[in-house]
Amino acid sequence: MNKIVIAILVLLISSCSGINSIKGNRVHSGINDYLYEHLNDYNSYESVSFSEVDSLYDIPFNNLLSSITSDTFNIHDVNNLYKFSGYQITHKFRATNEFGALVLYEEVFILDTNFAVIEVY
Prior knowledge:
The structure is a single chain. Strands 1, 2, 3, 4 and 5 form a five-stranded antiparallel beta sheet that branches. The chain contains two helices and five strands. The protein has helices spanning 2-38, 61-69, and strands spanning 46-50, 54-58, 83-96, 102-111, 117-120. The protein has one domain. The chain starts with a helix and ends with a strand. The protein is elongated.
């Protein structure tokens, strides 16, 4: 019986890490596509590190306003107002700039739900 429980736990843990791995691969692919289009010399690109992938959520203002002004507002209802909006990740990489000098960059990438980069800062 204990072996069955342990086997089930191992399967659950490995399947969760597999989902995160797939999500991470899609985020990295989206960043790679963005850099291919925007770097001065993509062939000089060298990945240094990635942070963990963070999920982003928005609270639509109209939903928040209508919930707060309703007679039955409950502070716990705020958690139901969040809407998943994409991902955020910090990426450190080297690439040549417009003068040909190799530069170390550290950028924060914001990706939409389809893993396309929508903002970089």
